[in-house]
């Protein structure tokens, strides 16, 4: 009596076949590019948050640029105004209508109407920058989880190898990009500062005079030093990533490969196994 072949379960098509090697290669390249953008965004966003919300960074600027003399405010009023402005960037109050006491002991508005309206735009831009930082963290976590799930069958060494490769290329790309922008900023910061405002603001309210308190409190030199800090932190993180990736690959006798998957998943592996099982039955 002939025996019936052993039954086997047929999985749906999406579960039976992996993407083609060519598709995997492009998926990996796009993922590494997105990872590099996240590596670029994260330190920028959080360094911006540090410089916009840290009392010591503002006090350093007040001391370096003689802000008390520029504004005509004593240090107590100046520090209080700075604290109110930092709080404004994080709270839900729509306008920075901050009142200070001038040298004659009279109460007056810290900012003009033009400055107050401009600060609304600044607050909106800062909020978007902070959100971008959180989004970068989310993507980096997703990238890590995705690589682990993708390479889990090959073991921890394959996972770490992919992380090393991604870190190297992301680090090199970010370092090169920020270094180029840094050269532009150093050699022509006035023009770069103007282009920044034209890019991120839809009006001309940012064009203020030296009589305005915002300019007196935060002269252009303050923003130059802030930009250098942001660039330094970003390049520092990128260099650590690139060096770590290079060191890991060299330590394990593996050169940095081209930006492609050096070990691609074979498509339709489950299909072949199912076919072989059916033939043996």
Q: Gist?
A:
This protein is mainly α.
Notes on the protein architecture:
It is built from 11 helices and 2 strands. With 281 residues, the chain is mainly alpha-helical. It has one domain. Strands 1-2 form a two-stranded antiparallel ribbon. Helix 2 runs antiparallel to helix 10 (220-251). The two termini are 15 Å apart. Mean pLDDT is 86; it is low at 262-275.
Radius of gyration: 28 Å
Average pLDDT, all residues: 86
Q: How would you sum up the major sheet?
A: 2 strands, antiparallel
| Overall strand count | 2
- Coarse morphology: elongated
Helix content: over 70%
Strand content: under 5%
Task: Enumerate the spans where pLDDT stays under 50 for 5 or more consecutive residues.
Answer: 262-275
Count of alpha and pi helical runs: 11
Strand arrangement in the largest pleated sheet = 1-2
Task: Spell out the blueprint of helices and strands.
Blueprint: H1 13-16, H2 21-53, H3 55-64, H4 67-71, H5 75-90, E1 99-101, E2 107-109, H6 113-151, H7 156-187, H8 189-200, H9 213-217, H10 220-251, H11 269-280
Antiparallel strand pairs: 1-2
List keywords for this structure.
single chain, 281 residues, mainly alpha, two-stranded antiparallel sheet, 2 strands, 71% helix
